[in-house]
Request: fold
Amino acid sequence: GNSVTQMEGPVTLSEEAFLTINCTYTATGYPSLFWYVQYPGEGLQLLLKATKADDKGSNKGFEATYRKETTSFHLEKGSVQVSDSAVYFCALFGGGSEKLVFGKGTKLTVNP
Amino acid sequence: GAVVSQHPSWVICKSGTSVKIECRSLDFQATTMFWYRQFPKQSLMLMATSNEGSKATYEQGVEKDKFLINHASLTLSTLTVTSAHPEDSSFYICSAWRGGGYEQYFGPGTRLTVT
Reply:
């Protein structure tokens, strides 16, 4: 079945540092890819998405590019802020299944 | 727009009792609602998919008689944990989907503690 693997956390960075959270997937066909963010005590929010190969999703300074050749969707941000502290989930939808499949989540803590 | 609410946000119940969790799409009609369970420091596990007016489809390993799901309208789905036990303590999250190319919108979650 479909699966998502993302780097294990936790990740701790200083403010203004560069962030990369790796995500790779296994799926048949051409799934859509997502990054969700969960702030402390809150539900999941869609951060960005990409629906086909080479698409770049971006939002709030975060970016991720759908790389079919490497089956990856790595999340990046050039300069993180304290307010970015949250748990980030990579997910896919489609690729033979009408279910969202989540990675295990990566907790990010940004210190001032 | 696209707000999903859950009620209650947290609940404590005694072992053997039942508890109902509501999931509402506040400003759109959801043809499908999903129920997830999230264990501490782990990912979301899909429990079941419910379509308005029909029986829920449960994932493998999820007891349908223990986790009763009702999707009575296009804006409301309920999850009832029957005869709860401490191992049912978890964070339950719902999401609502209007189908097609729309994304799923997630509720804020309900923390259940069974004592």
About this structure: The radius of gyration of chain A is 13 Å. The mean pLDDT of chain A is 93. The CA atoms of residues 22 and 111 of chain A lie 21 Å apart. Chain A touches chain B at residues 34, 36, 42-46, 49, 89, 99-100, 102-105, 107 (CB under 8 Å).
